[in-house]
């Protein structure tokens, strides 16, 4: 009697969990789209060139307070700090901040900086002409590297945003030290880079 | 009515051997019993872990266990209690009661049913052996947030595969329940005549099949991140650890309703019986339950207000969360209105059900407090959260399971349980559980963080009180085991109806019911339907 119907229905119902398992994975690209729209995770930052910046378009009527955070992930034996303290900048003007990173270990290590912007909304109005975060950095034992970062904040930045914090975290990507990060392929880094 | 069919069956009954019956059996009643006994065993395993936690927190400083082990205790306690106690117990009730309530001879897919249950012992073996592996058990919290979870040692793949197995088990169980209710109802048992316990379970089953696979996906991503070089949650590879929290809680919030909706169903059976009145607002109960389930898919981010969401997101999830209080309020109102001017008696199941209504509401109110975004920044990850979810899960879900167990034990065993011991169990549990969890509100508001084995000295007194409550609550549960064993062994003979005010098809069957019931579908009349 109805037992057969039960089996048929169970098979149909089984499609729901299969679909929802897929939906779990579909949340990954959806989350990307969401981040692009809101600028979450620093996703809104654009790459630009210095000649695209209009020197006349500087908004001198207001100042934005810029802060720079630096950190290293896990046990990466690098000393990483910002040489530029808190600065006040005008939207539309090209600004420069300086960072220094030093390999304090006795091994050659490859690292890569990942950035974030707070508040997230501000990242949509942020463009960088130069950043050490676009490429991998290789540091010999004891090597010290000074890195500039140039950026401009669009004059369209909403007036409610008075301050912007840029945060950089160095992750280890070297193969030589044989830890987990080493397994990441170059392709993925390229992909990560293209999102920047 | 169905007596003739039952006697007919008795003569032809096939008597399987012990192994045949309990290991290969497909009878819904036997599988229900297995589920319930399994969850009782796990209740004491998870409870023992809670005792370790309360023992360590009895005073500040590190006394008994090292921090790593303490954290693996909090992690395992949660996994065992959620997946090993509350969910299997609810499935056990469903197996026993749904076919008898809708007038079906068995579940729609009896062999799948056997498989659903027998996955569980294997899954929990996988999970529990991690405590004996080098590096110990998982200690990153039951929510398994990366990157911390990815630092788990050898236990990591065991936990992931245990979660996969548990997911298979509950999804198959849920499909079985839906197929049973949709196809096996006795003639005349329309959807709007179904007992509320059955309704609660259909809705829970849909939540299960829609949300558990998302958890399976999330833990699979963790697995591939750790061993196969993917970067779903690894910022160095372009991923985002916050995304895990979104995916996890997309499952996790429906999950909390998976834990509580069957409890709502049980309480909706018990209260009318001992109020000797039909359930007030049956239809609104059905719609409120469905509304809660539907809304549970749109509130997940209230678990992660502090991750740095856009303001619009914070506001949306705050309002969505608070609006769930509306259908929940409808349910509380209906339970109170059912008792209103009822001819009340307070046997143990009713005591647990009334305590459920009262104490679950306390948990609901602290949930509202946590749902207010700006307030949540203060409460997040403190003992206030711990107090909140233990009020809804212990005095909520677990109390309802006790109510259901006392309510149906005479039907299952054919004997009345020891009412005196039952009342002792109730009063000891209710007093001690409040001594255990109420002070945790104060600790949380004062700023004591969760999942830390040590604390600042100003938290000492309330932690001591809480621990004493915990030890009494833990020991009181042994009384329940005594009651259950006594009840299985003997006692006053239970009548078919058992309780004077009980209505429904299951109460037309003998106590205990024979192995096969309703092989001929019963006739559903208004007097045997829910109201």
From TrEMBL, chain A:
Keywords, alphabetical: Copper, Membrane, Signal-anchor, Transmembrane, Transmembrane helix
Chief subcellular location: membrane
Pfam families per record: CtaG_Cox11 (PF04442)
Assigned GO CC terms: plasma membrane
Membrane topology reported for the UniProt record: Single-pass type II membrane protein
Location of region: Disordered: 175-196
Subcellular location as annotated: Cell inner membrane
GO function terms (MF aspect): copper ion binding
Key word Methyltransferase present: no
Gene3D superfamilies per record: Ctag/Cox11
Keyword Transmembrane: yes
SUPFAM superfamilies assigned: Ctag/Cox11
Biological role stated in the UniProt entry: Exerts its effect at some terminal stage of cytochrome c oxidase synthesis, probably by being involved in the insertion of the copper B into subunit I.
Protein family according to the UniProt entry: Belongs to the COX11/CtaG family.
Protein name from the UniProt record: Cytochrome c oxidase assembly protein CtaG
Organism of provenance: Methylohalomonas lacus
From TrEMBL, chain B:
EC number: 7.1.1.9
Keyword Cell wall biogenesis/degradation: no
UniProt catalytic activity: 4 Fe(II)-[cytochrome c] + O2 + 8 H(+)(in) = 4 Fe(III)-[cytochrome c] + 2 H2O + 4 H(+)(out)
CDD domains given in the database record: Cyt_c_Oxidase_I
Biased composition (Polar residues): 517-531
Metabolic or biological pathway: Energy metabolism; oxidative phosphorylation
Annotated transmembrane regions: 34-55, 75-94, 115-135, 155-182, 194-223, 256-274, 286-305, 317-337, 349-369, 389-409, 421-442, 462-485
Region Disordered, annotated ranges: 511-531
GO biological process entries: aerobic respiration; electron transport coupled proton transport; respiratory electron transport chain
Keywords: Cell membrane, Copper, Electron transport, Heme, Iron, Membrane, Metal-binding, Respiratory chain, Translocase, Transmembrane, Transmembrane helix, Transport
GO cellular component: plasma membrane; respiratory chain complex IV
InterPro entries, per database record: Cyt_c_oxase-like_su1_dom (IPR023616), Cyt_c_oxase-like_su1_sf (IPR036927), Cyt_C_Oxase_1 (IPR000883), Cyt_c_Oxase_su1_BS (IPR023615), Cyt_c_oxase_su1_dom (IPR033944), Cyt_c_oxidase_su1_bac (IPR014241)
Cell compartment(s), UniProt: Cell membrane; Membrane
Entry function: Cytochrome c oxidase is the component of the respiratory chain that catalyzes the reduction of oxygen to water. Subunits 1-3 form the functional core of the enzyme complex. CO I is the catalytic subunit of the enzyme. Electrons originating in cytochrome c are transferred via the copper A center of subunit 2 and heme A of subunit 1 to the bimetallic center formed by heme A3 and copper B.
Similarity remark: Belongs to the heme-copper respiratory oxidase family.
Protein name as it appears in the record: Cytochrome c oxidase subunit 1
